[in-house]
Write a structure and sequence with these properties.
mainly alpha; DUF4398; 126 residues; DUF4398 domain-containing protein; 5 helices
Length: 126
């Protein structure tokens, strides 16, 4: 019995498709250098906003996650480094927001004290 090319062709196409998909699966994703840089900027920005004073737990977690991301990157674990870098960015952004909130609340408290003081002075002068 003669095997025709029409019979073998679908098998060859399947093998070729499997090889292409297999090679694509082996291709590594690019290293998360942008994510690490963004995380470093976020941590620095939170530090500049006095997160060490107003949100010490959050900024410490962000720094720890950034350090772990850098270690994972150095060990060639790109996906883990990317996840940790994104986590560090989010934690640093949270620390920044909490620091800004604390500063704003402090400013509000000072303004309310000024208003109370001015009201008392106005009543005394009358």
């Amino acid at each position: 019995m003669n095997t025709s090319f029409a019979y073998i062709r679908p098998m060859l196409q399947g093998l070729a498709l499997g090889a292409v998909l297999g090679l694509a699966g082996c291709a590594s994703t690019p290293p998360p250098t942008e994510e690490l840089a963004a995380a470093q900027l976020s941590v620095a920005r939170a530090g500049d906003a006095d997160a060490d004073q107003y949100a010490p737990g959050d900024i410490e977690q962000a720094r720890r996650a950034l350090s772990q991301a850098q270690a994972a990157m150095g060990a060639g674990r790109g996906d883990e480094a990317r996840t940790l870098a994104l986590s560090a960015s989010a934690l640093a952004d949270l620390a920044h927001a909490r620091a800004r909130q604390a500063e704003t609340e402090s400013e509000l408290s000072a303004r309310r004290a000024e208003i109370t003081n001015l009201r008392q002075r106005l009543q005394v002068e009358e």
